[in-house]
Amino acid sequence: MKSHFYAYISKTRWLQRWGLKRNVVTENVMEHSWEVSTIAHALALIKNKYFDGDLDVNAIVVAALYHDCGEVITGDMPSPIKYHSPEITRAYKSIEHQAEKELLGLLPEELQQEFSSVLVQANIPQQHHRIIKAADTISAYLKCQMELSSGNQEFAKAAESIKANLDKLDQPEVHHFMTVFAESYALTLDELLT
After folding, report:
1. Distance in angstroms (rounded) separating the CA atoms of residues 36 and 57
2. PROSITE patterns annotated for this entry (predicted)?
3. Domain that includes residue 36, residue range
4. Which of 3, 49, 122, 178 could be bridged to 182 by S-S, CB 3.0 to 4.6 A?
């Protein structure tokens, strides 16, 4: 059986994020997925090392890598629309779930069970999902900060809202990451090297 799965998800490079805002620095879903995966990796390790966690770090990283693949079918729905009302949120979550199932169906049958645990969001353990969601939120915060540092005030309210959401999280690994790593994202390469 030939499969179009990887060819299909490779198209995430053409899906631009933050579609309702003017962007100084564009970001596509593929780039975003990589960043969320690296942050989720750090969060899971921090949780295990400093906060008595017992997380399967590798499973979290793999699930984070695939967390937005369904958007190759649905497109990137901006958060203000996705969470505008409970009805829209429910409808969009249903569409996302259907897209994940359709992507899963593109894989050879022998691989579908393994992929189901990382591709279908409903099958990801809750503790893994919390880490990935936190990494996704940190990624959004860092994007806002990048835009603001480039003079783009279009992201000011989003930055405030996302930072407030991060501050409310009862996840010490998130606060640790923000304290230890987040400020460095604002530095230029020259500043990082010196």
Report:
1. 13
2. HD (PS51831)
3. 5-193
4. 178
What is the number of structural domains in the chain?
1
Closest CA to 139 of 12, 38, 20, 19: 38
Taking alpha carbons only, the member of 60, 62, 72, 61 closest to residue 28 is: 72
- List the CATH number of the domain containing 171: 1.10.3210.10
Question: Contact at 8 Å (CB) between 22 and 154?
Answer: yes
Q: In 35-66, which positions are buried (b, 16+ CB within 10 angstroms) versus exposed (e)?
A: bbbebbbbbbbbbeeeeebebebeebbbbbbb
Task: Kindly list the averaged pLDDT for each block of 10 residues, start to end, along the chain of length 194.
Answer: 93 93 95 98 98 98 97 86 87 92 96 96 96 98 96 96 96 98 94 92
